[in-house]
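Just scan my protein:

——
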Amino acid sequence: IVISGASDSGLSGTLTLSTCSNVCILTDYPFRLDLSKTDTTPRFDYDFAQALGQVPITSGLVDEITAGYGNGEVQILAQRSAGWKQPELFFDTLEDADLGKPVIAISGEKLVVRVPASDGWGDRAPDLRGKNLTLVISDGGAAQEATVKLGDSVSLPNTVTAYWQWILMALAGG
């Protein structure tokens, strides 16, 4: 996005998007937002409040989080004194690495996550230690964004994994 004009009453610019198959084609979409209009309806106010409630917070959901890298996987350990119900994780991209589907287990107040990492070609990712990983953890209608520096492998607590989950992981890994 290139902003060409900004004031209290409006914002204008050009949004450039690419469409790729064998060749990428860039398309420009000029826009202008009128910020001077303040008339809202009760429905708009409700929808806006609902949308704002979905924005991840920066603290308050997770008490402590650590992350490490080893043996071709990112390990994450998150502590929450209120416990976990149905946690989900979403990751930002890491340079030179693709992250797979996280395998999540709960051990008391601890969330144990293992995420396979590859180089994008199916081989093991380069050493990711020292890189920052930005992620969002959500649970029970709340979400928190966090950035953690990947260190050495994290000592994860033993969790019980069902036999069918091991079979599924083996089949997915080839």
Residues 93 and 159 are 27 Å apart (CA to CA). The mean pLDDT is 84.
